């Protein structure tokens, strides 16, 4: 390593084949094959062979741990549904079209949650500077009900564990195509947590929430930040929106740890959103979040997965980039996808896998400092958010 090269951060990757048990059905969009393909691709790229990586098996979160952010009655309801999957509980969001029941749903969901909890423990103990749980990011789960393919909110559990472990302020950044409503609501009135969600507008996408004027509860005004970009937004607008809001407000909040959710369902080939992102744009955003953690939190960063339903083409490439970036050695977007992995995809799905780790996309974006264009719907979105939140932190919505 040259003298100018940064040391590789100690990085934990939370993984076990047991995480594949979170499986609603063979036809459900959130299929665990996306996790297996990601880890296979990561291994083929040689990422996990680097000495700064440690693979940590996720424990099953205990009821007491789950109840730090979930209602005890809800945890009990999930347990009952796990044992009797033929008895739906729609009030708890269990047994619905989005969250169908399956035997063992409690243990499978609690293991995903335990993954992000052990990531938080790694950060608190100093065993890791960065931690990645690609199976996590269950951001729609609320205190008392499941929603949007999510049963237990692992990101919220990690945030709460960090707070309980002495971290003064935690910043949560959610770049899934869908609004991070569950995590936001759990910490709606908690001034020690800022939730920032960059998502497709609720005017066109589930869950129909997360607008600029949703800014937090009475004791935490300004700690919920929502950037709701219009349907059809591509890399340039999405990255412009991120950089026009997130670094400024994150710096003002001054967090001790960043927890991020990297749902990759904003990709143009994903069937469950209307955004037009590329893997290249998503990779750049991961680099941006990593840089924020370095600048604001001495590197302390927990990254999770989330949405992403193009199982073979998009998710494995996006999250393999995330794991590599967390370890301090990003994979260039023009890196060839290893042939053994492509052969595996062809055998499994009868389809041709991508040849490169990126989409060869142009991800140039126009800096906010260049000027505000009121005719641009993305700029109007940005300005709406900045007007709501920036003055609360002494920032000027026009110029900062």
Automatic annotation (TrEMBL):
Q: Which residues form the signal peptide?
A: none
Superkingdom as given in the UniProt entry: Bacteria
The name on file for this protein is Acetoin utilization protein AcuC
Q: Which SUPFAM superfamilies match?
A: Arginase/deacetylase
Pfam families, per the entry = Hist_deacetyl
Pathway(s) the chain acts in: Ketone degradation; acetoin degradation
Q: Where's the Histone deacetylase domain?
A: 28-324
Q: Which Gene3D superfamilies match?
A: Histone deacetylase domain
Q: Organism, per UniProt?
A: Arthrobacter halodurans
Show the InterPro entries listed in the entry.
AcuC (IPR003085), HDACs (IPR000286), His_deacetylse_dom (IPR023801), His_deacetylse_dom_sf (IPR037138), Ureohydrolase_dom_sf (IPR023696)
Q: Which UniProt keywords apply?
A: Acetoin catabolism
Keyword Transit peptide tagged: no
The family note in this entry says: Belongs to the histone deacetylase family.
